């Protein structure tokens, strides 16, 4: 491992002292901040996360209402405020988990690094490397910082995490190497040229470290409802307090008698009813439960709201390596170079196989070499006798062995070998056109094999020139003038067994899948065809260099493209932006650092479990066992969340509609508010909260259709209007029929009990509509909660706590009549809604035709 001492110049580089930095130079660089440390914090502190979850519009409204009720001394009417604590806790815990994940963002393995300082090799932590350090890069280690190679002993790097190219790259002196690459074989001494945040990998991940909060369609709909309610609640609350004070004889009398407390509680009843507080809580809980269910299937959810995003995804961008393929190399076969059989090739299969085995059997064989040796070993090949060896060189693009007797076997890139042997023939004064004609059909066959998804290496048999010895050939490795193409080694990436079935599932579900890769587009297209990315249709592939730069033009071009190859990290991000410009909802899979920008830009980033830490940190979902086949389960879970939450949102919004209508009616008619906050807590729990929780967890694979908020509003309006009208009519009519004086507390309490029972009855009807079809467990669900509500009225402690008391005698008869009339109003509103919907649909179809 020792390097030549002293100062040397290599590959046009300036003089470098290969003894490394001394202690004084290291200390100077540390003081100047030229170390390999990076900022490990995210853009959000713990305090900002807590503030963002505590100081929300929803919390402000509910907390204010709760404090106001508590000030009146009626603590039983303030139980609705508990939802703040639960909901806020869920939000804080979720985002703190995201912060911890982002704070750990690093693509470098924190193992010690061997550096040369003061002529000695010592181990230091990656963060202690300084600018100008000489570092040793050894097989199996990650490159700790951007550097330039001074000396190499067959160093071969896997740069797929940075470039997306899955093949390994041989490095020579003077080449640049980047942090995040992994040494597959060989060793090198390199000088550090960029550290910390100035490194290539840090530049790629800098944007990824910025916190991005995803907002689901469901959450946007709920926030829209809250924003609308915020404009209604404040003025309506003031008007409600004024009207309730008026019903008890005005402000002076209310203060003197203490009736102001009941007036405030009544106003709060209207305000709380208008806020779908249970929906906010249930959404958070439903996301959390879905995440736990997915975790049982090795799918880690790092952002709860992303659970439902895949229900809306219509574009899925797939990274080839690690998603469709597992990143491993597989040797498929050894076939004759240009003929149909080995007889025409002029040699036997066993002879070519043995030669290829020996060519691959270097001191540190790369992944391709190891795969070929495994294939041939299974067929009976063993290490043979080699007189001399020319190891593979990235400059030459070929390797060679010399056998006793002067025969040479060469293996390398087909185009490079063909051109090299033609040049060698020309320099030797031979007929170069004959050599060119010899290789022409070989190159055609190579192209055909490459189009089938193979990586192709050419094996050529030749002989040493007259008077040339093996040692001379090794010292001056120049291709001989005579050559005979012998065989083609066909390799490919291992395709995941579940890839084809998973892609078929997405295709059947109407999700457009594209493969975005850093590899050759021809190779990627062939792999895409193997897994039937586009079904029976041949995939359309392009080179990323041929794509337009303008986002709008790129957006239009992508509509006809299935495979994009040679993609740079910035281009992956641009492709996602272009799809967003076409109003697509985009999911992106990946496993390399080169995927982080695109994953961050996508609506849903999905990382494989074997991905780089940086990639997993920015992804919303991580497939822990790297199985692409888990994605349909995630989609199904997202659809379950979205479809079921749409059901239950209809329940909550119905309450918002009738609470707003009743509050407005109370203000205009100057009557006491028809029920208390505790009444609505009881009714809401039995007809909305608990049933909604069960419905939200039920199986549901319905595809998501855009327009969540519109559909919820259209459902809620008829039911909400029916409840509001029924209660207001009962509130106005019952005192006259029964002779109640609502200024008497007992009569007012009985009146409010009757109105609460009307709300409960109609709430059960709304639940029945939401839970359809009822010819299943859903019907039992509705019946059970209806029964529980009635039974609760017959249990004194429950009835006393919630201030619900059944009327007696004629009042009971009037209540029953009111309930029947309310049910009739409910049915009429539903029929009117359906008729109006048909008229609107007919008019729309008429305009379109």
UniProtKB/TrEMBL annotation:
<feature type="transmembrane region" description="Helical">
    <location>
        <begin position="648"/>
        <end position="673"/>
    </location>
</feature>
<feature type="transmembrane region" description="Helical">
    <location>
        <begin position="750"/>
        <end position="771"/>
    </location>
</feature>
<keyword id="KW-1278">Translocase</keyword>
<dbReference type="Pfam" id="PF00122">
    <property type="entry name" value="E1-E2_ATPase"/>
</dbReference>
<feature type="transmembrane region" description="Helical">
    <location>
        <begin position="54"/>
        <end position="72"/>
    </location>
</feature>
<dbReference type="InterPro" id="IPR023298">
    <property type="entry name" value="ATPase_P-typ_TM_dom_sf"/>
</dbReference>
<keyword id="KW-0812">Transmembrane</keyword>
<feature type="transmembrane region" description="Helical">
    <location>
        <begin position="679"/>
        <end position="700"/>
    </location>
</feature>
<feature type="transmembrane region" description="Helical">
    <location>
        <begin position="811"/>
        <end position="837"/>
    </location>
</feature>
<feature type="transmembrane region" description="Helical">
    <location>
        <begin position="78"/>
        <end position="96"/>
    </location>
</feature>
<feature type="transmembrane region" description="Helical">
    <location>
        <begin position="224"/>
        <end position="243"/>
    </location>
</feature>
<keyword id="KW-1133">Transmembrane helix</keyword>
<dbReference type="InterPro" id="IPR044492">
    <property type="entry name" value="P_typ_ATPase_HD_dom"/>
</dbReference>
<dbReference type="InterPro" id="IPR018303">
    <property type="entry name" value="ATPase_P-typ_P_site"/>
</dbReference>
<feature type="transmembrane region" description="Helical">
    <location>
        <begin position="263"/>
        <end position="289"/>
    </location>
</feature>
<feature type="transmembrane region" description="Helical">
    <location>
        <begin position="712"/>
        <end position="730"/>
    </location>
</feature>
<feature type="transmembrane region" description="Helical">
    <location>
        <begin position="780"/>
        <end position="799"/>
    </location>
</feature>
<dbReference type="InterPro" id="IPR059000">
    <property type="entry name" value="ATPase_P-type_domA"/>
</dbReference>
<feature type="domain" description="P-type ATPase A">
    <location>
        <begin position="110"/>
        <end position="206"/>
    </location>
</feature>
<dbReference type="InterPro" id="IPR008250">
    <property type="entry name" value="ATPase_P-typ_transduc_dom_A_sf"/>
</dbReference>
<protein>
    <submittedName>
        <fullName>HAD-IC family P-type ATPase</fullName>
    </submittedName>
</protein>
<dbReference type="InterPro" id="IPR036412">
    <property type="entry name" value="HAD-like_sf"/>
</dbReference>
<keyword id="KW-0472">Membrane</keyword>
<dbReference type="InterPro" id="IPR001757">
    <property type="entry name" value="P_typ_ATPase"/>
</dbReference>
<dbReference type="Pfam" id="PF00702">
    <property type="entry name" value="Hydrolase"/>
</dbReference>
<dbReference type="InterPro" id="IPR023214">
    <property type="entry name" value="HAD_sf"/>
</dbReference>
<dbReference type="InterPro" id="IPR023299">
    <property type="entry name" value="ATPase_P-typ_cyto_dom_N"/>
</dbReference>
């Amino acid at each position: 491992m020792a390097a030549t001492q002293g100062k040397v110049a290599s590959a046009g580089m300036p003089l470098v002292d290969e003894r490394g930095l001394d202690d004084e130079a290291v200390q100077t660089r540390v003081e100047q901040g030229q170390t390999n440390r990076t900022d490990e914090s995210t853009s959000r502190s713990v305090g900002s996360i807590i503030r963002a979850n505590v100081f929300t519009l929803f919390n402000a409204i509910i907390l204010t209402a709760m404090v106001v009720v508590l000030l009146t001394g009626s603590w039983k009417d303030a139980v609705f405020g508990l939802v703040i604590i639960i909901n806020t806790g869920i939000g804080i815990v979720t985002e703190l988990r995201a912060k911890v994940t982002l704070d750990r963002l690093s693509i470098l393995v924190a193992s010690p690094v061997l550096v040369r300082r003061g002529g000695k090799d010592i181990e230091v932590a990656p963060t202690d490397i300084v600018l100008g350090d000489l570092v040793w890069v050894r097989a199996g280690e990650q490159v700790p910082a951007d550097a330039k190679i001074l000396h190499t002993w067959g160093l071969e790097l896997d740069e797929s995490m940075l470039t997306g190219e899955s093949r390994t790259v041989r490095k020579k002196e003077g080449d640049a190497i980047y942090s995040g690459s992994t040494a597959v074989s060989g060793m090198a001494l390199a000088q550090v040229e960029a550290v910390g945040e100035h490194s290539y990998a840090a530049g790629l991940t800098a944007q990824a470290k910025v916190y991005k909060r995803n907002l689901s369609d469901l959450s946007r709909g709920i926030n829209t409802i809250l924003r609308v309610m915020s404009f209604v609640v404040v003025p309506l609350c003031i008007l409600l307090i004024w009207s309730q004070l008026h019903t008890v004889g005005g402000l002076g009398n209310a203060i003197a008698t203490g009736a102001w407390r009941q007036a405030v509680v009544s106003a709060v009843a209207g305000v709380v009813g208008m806020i779908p507080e249970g929906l906010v809580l249930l959404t958070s809980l439903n996301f959390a439960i879905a995440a736990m269910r997915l975790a049982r299937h090795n799918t880690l959810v790092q952002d709860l709201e992303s659970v439902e995003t895949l229900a809306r995804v219509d574009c899925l961008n797939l990274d080839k390596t690690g998603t469709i393929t597992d990143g491993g190399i597989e040797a498929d076969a050894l076939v004759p170079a240009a003929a149909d059989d080995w007889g025409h090739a002029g040699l036997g299969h066993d002879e070519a196989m043995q030669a290829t085995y020996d060519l691959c059997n270097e001191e540190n064989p790369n992944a391709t070499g190891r795969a070929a040796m495994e294939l041939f070993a299974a067929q009976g090949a063993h290490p043979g006798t080699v007189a001399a060896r020319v190891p593979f060189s990235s400059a030459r693009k070929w390797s060679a062995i010399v056998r006793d007797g002067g025969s040479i076997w060469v293996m390398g890139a087909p185009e490079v070998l063909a051109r090299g042997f033609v040049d060698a023939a020309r320099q030797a004064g031979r007929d170069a056109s004959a050599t060119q004609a010899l290789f022409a059909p070989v190159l055609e066959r190579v192209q055909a094999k490459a189009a089938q998804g193979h990586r192709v290496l050419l094996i050529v048999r030749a002989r040493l020139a007259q008077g040339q010895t093996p040692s001379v050939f090794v010292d001056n490795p120049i291709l001989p003038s005579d050559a005979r193409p012998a065989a083609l080694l066909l390799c490919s990436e291992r395709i995941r067994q579940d890839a084809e079935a998973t892609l078929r599932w997405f295709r059947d579900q109407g999700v457009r899948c594209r493969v975005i890769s850093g590899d050759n587009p021809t190779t990627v297209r062939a792999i895409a065809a193997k897994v039937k990315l586009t079904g029976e249709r041949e995939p359309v592939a392009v080179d990323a260099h041929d794509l337009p730069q303008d986002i709008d033009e790129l957006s239009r071009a992508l509509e006809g493209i299935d495979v994009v190859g040679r993609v740079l990290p910035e281009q992956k991000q641009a492709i996602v932006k272009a799809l967003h410009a076409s109003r697509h909802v985009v999911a992106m899979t990946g496993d390399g650092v080169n995927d982080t920008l695109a994953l961050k830009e996508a609506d849903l980033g999905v990382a494989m479990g074997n991905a780089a830490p940086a990639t997993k940190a920015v992804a919303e979902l991580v497939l822990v066992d790297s199985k692409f086949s888990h994605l349909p389960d995630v989609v199904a879970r997202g659809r379950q969340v979205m479809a079921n939450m749409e059901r239950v949102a209809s329940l909550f919004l119905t309450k918002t509609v009738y609470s707003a209508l009743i509050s407005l009616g109370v203000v205009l008619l100057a009557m006491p508010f028809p029920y208390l906050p505790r009444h609505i807590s009881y009714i809401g729990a039995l007809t909305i909260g608990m049933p909604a929780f069960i419905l939200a967890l039920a199986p549901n694979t319905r595809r998501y259709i855009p327009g969540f908020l519109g559909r919820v509003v259209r459902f809620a309006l008829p039911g909400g209007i029916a409840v509001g009208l029924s209660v207001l009519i009962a509130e106005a009519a019952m005192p006259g029929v029964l002779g109640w004086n609502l200024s008497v507390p007992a009569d007012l309490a009985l009146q409010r009990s009757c109105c609460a029972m009307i709300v409960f009855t109609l709430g059960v009807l709304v639940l029945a509509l939401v839970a359809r079809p009822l010819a299943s467990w859903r019907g039992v669900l509705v019946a059970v909660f209806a029964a529980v509500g009635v039974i609760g009225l017959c249990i004194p402690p429950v009835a006393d706590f919630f201030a619900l008391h059944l009327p007696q005698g004629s009042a009971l008869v009037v209540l029953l009549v009111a309930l029947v009339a309310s049910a009739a109003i409910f049915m009429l509103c539903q029929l009117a809604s359906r008729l109006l919907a048909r008229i609107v649909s007919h008019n729309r179809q008429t305009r379109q035709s």
